[in-house]
Here is the input.
Amino acid sequence: MTVQLVSLDAFQVVTFSLMDSQKKENYAIPIEQIREIRAVESITKVPKAKSYVKGIINLRGHIIPVIDVKEKLGLDSVSTNSSKQRILVAEVNNSLTGLLVDEVDQVMRIQTKDIEPAPQGALESHNYVKGIAKSDEKLIVLLDVAKLLDDSSFAITEAIQGGNQQ
Here is the structure.
């Protein structure tokens, strides 16, 4: 019988891609913050919502807002293959929010020793970045979903209230 040890020096993340005008950028979110991964269905637009709030969806009777992660991070919006786009349903502070991403890549284990701190001041969105992971010659930006959504909470609340009034 073999015993598999789980290292406390590693954690699992869901990796995904955002297409910038020049190339594909790699990002990750800790798996315990992701409730599910969904194909993009019809997103109901909410009038006068912030540009990064794409709208709301009905998730088994719950109205949840959908945020375009690429737009929230200030990346160039380029048309992407919508068949590969996915909504990561994130749960933070007992609240569900959909995160629109261009492509979900994989679930992977990242060693904490492979994570560097985010360069302060170099990134305009550094508040949302937990660190930069190195994996097989590529860099993966680890996002802090709680900070990303906390900064958007007013726009999210407006979107939900707007959706419930219809």
